[in-house]
Amino acid sequence: MDAREAYAYALLRIVPDAARGEAVNAGIVFYCRRDQFLEIRWELPIAALAVVAPEIELDPLRANLAALQRIAAGDRDAGPVAAQDQSERFHWLVAPSSTLVQPGPVHTGLTAEPAATLTHLFSELVLP
């Protein structure tokens, strides 16, 4: 018997100037429906942003990413989207809705431990 479950994830990218097409990975949205696991992890890539967008304001980025994280967690104070079920929240989180913080394409895989898989993906794809 295979104990692995399907998961889906998308990178959260900071796109300082859409016309230039440059993006810096800042977080990941990870969802495993069977295990009822939805989480966002993020870290502001300050050094990378200093190279591609030295004028960018960091506080609004932090606020945006923190708000997305609260929505993923289902925080009651995070607005009506946070009150939806996990599947609806995931689909909302990975839909394009901002010009500055954009989700990348959704990828899928199999995991026996969603939290460990998220940690691995985060360290490989987001952390410097």
What does this structure look like?
The protein is an alpha+beta fold. It is 34% helix and 26% strand. It is built from 4 helices and 5 strands. Strands 1, 2, 3, 4 and 5 form a 5-stranded antiparallel β-sheet that branches. The termini are far apart.
Oligomeric state of the chains present here: single chain
What is the count of helical runs? 4
Cα(first) to Cα(last) distance is: 37 Å
Q: What's the mean pLDDT score?
A: 94
Helix amount, in percent? 25-40%
Uncertain regions: pLDDT < 50 for 5+ in a row?
none
The topology string of helices and strands comes to EEEHHHEEH
Largest sheet properties: 5 strands, antiparallel
In short:
The chain has four helices and five strands, in the order βββαααββα. With 128 residues, the chain is of the alpha+beta class.
Which features would summarize this protein structure in a list?
single chain, 128 residues, alpha+beta, five-stranded antiparallel beta sheet, 4 helices
Write the layout of secondary structure elements.
Elements: E1 5-14, E2 24-32, E3 37-42, H1 46-52, H2 58-73, H3 86-93, E4 101-103, E5 107-111, H4 114-125
Antiparallel strand pairs: 1-2, 1-4, 1-5, 2-3
